[in-house]
Write a structure and sequence with these properties.
Length: 332
């Protein structure tokens, strides 16, 4: 029998000879940067054009031109939401884990599993996998926040589930600040298994910033500057099993060394301006911009101004570590 005949016979039976396939090795992905002006313009127009009751969420996603899916990366996504005064983004839940990082505004709150979490600039709010959440703006001004989700990863596993709450708002059943009281430094010594998915929580910006400023020069990372992880307060581990949230500070003119790793990161510039060299090129960033550093691309960061720079980011390192796929290498 000829090999070509064998191949076509196998094909008819939905089989394929391994001699016909090649092992698909890692294909390098290109970085990309989304400018704040264009995004803000889109958000302002959306807030006039689309009523919040028309959309499940009035959010605009980042889309990489280098990927086959509508996402900034193959595992994690960023979108930006705008909620006008008096509006409510109705209650729902899904098994994508989500975070909100407030970019602009205050006087809003997200209700998560019966507790209100106030939202002001720089605050990070967690809505873990399968927690009910709705958003409210009780202030006089629009509020804009960044939504970070593990959606592309969950979709690639074909395990995405979603439910709408029976009413636009869930009942408030807990005191505001209760999660902090329960998960603060003095707490009951029991271990709740549901905590492994992450917990509803608010990391107030004033505490985060104070923690960053408390770090000494000797604690600075050569590749990431002064970097803090938003840890799961119940376990001390990553924010979520699928996503780590981080904040980093670069001092005036600080420049980091080059490294690469098998985790993918999405960055949002909270303050300052600088440059991130990725692969052969570089991305120039300033406040409000967002960018992706795809896995295994050598990269380094540089603060180009005389002021401090702050980057908020999410990455899929917890997944890579859990699957024993995390690898990191120093560059030249
Ligand atoms: Fe949601
Ligand atoms: Fe890195």
């Amino acid at each position: 029998m000829k090999l070509t005949e064998l191949d076509s016979e196998l094909e008819k039976n939905q089989l394929a000879g391994f001699w016909k396939t090649r092992v698909p090795l890692h294909a390098s992905e290109a970085p990309y940067l989304w400018k704040w002006e264009e995004l803000l313009d889109g958000l302002m127009k959306a807030s006039e054009t689309i009523g919040i009751e028309q959309a499940e969420r009035r959010a605009i996603q980042l889309v990489s031109p280098h990927l086959p899916i509508k996402s900034p990366s193959h595992t994690l996504q960023f979108s930006f939401s705008i909620v006008n005064p008096g509006e409510v983004a109705r209650a729902h839940r899904h098994n994508m884990a989500a975070i909100r990082f407030v970019v602009q505004g205050k006087g809003a709150y997200t209700a998560v599993d019966g507790e209100k979490f106030p939202m002001a600039e720089g605050d990070l709010i967690l809505t873990p996998n399968w927690t009910w959440h709705d958003h409210h703006n009780e202030s006089e001004d629009p509020i804009i926040w960044l939504d970070g989700l593990d959606g592309p990863l969950i979709r690639s596993l074909n395990v995405l589930f979603f439910e709408e709450y029976e009413k636009p708002e869930q009942p408030v059943t807990r005191e505001t600040g209760e999660s902090l009281s329960r998960l603060g430094f003095a707490r009951a010594p029991k271990k709740d298994e549901t905590h492994l998915r992450g917990v509803p929580f608010r990391y107030a910006w004033q505490d985060t910033y104070k923690a960053l400023k408390t770090m000494s020069d000797s604690e600075r990372d050569p590749y990431d500057g002064t970097l803090l992880r938003y840890i799961n307060p119940a376990t001390g581990g990553f924010t979520y099993p699928t996503m780590s949230c981080e904040i980093q500070l670069f001092k005036a003119r600080e420049k980091t060394r080059i490294h690469r790793h098998t985790s993918t990161a999405l960055y949002h510039v909270f303050k300052g301006r600088g440059r991130t060299a990725v692969g052969e090129g570089h991305l120039e960033w300033k406040k409000g911009d967002s960018f992706v550093v795809p896995l295994w691309q050598p990269h380094s960061h540089e603060n180009l101004s005389d002021e401090e720079a702050l980057l908020f980011s999410i990455n899929d390192r917890p997944v890579m570590e859990a699957l024993q796929l995390y690898r990191e290498e120093a560059g030249n």
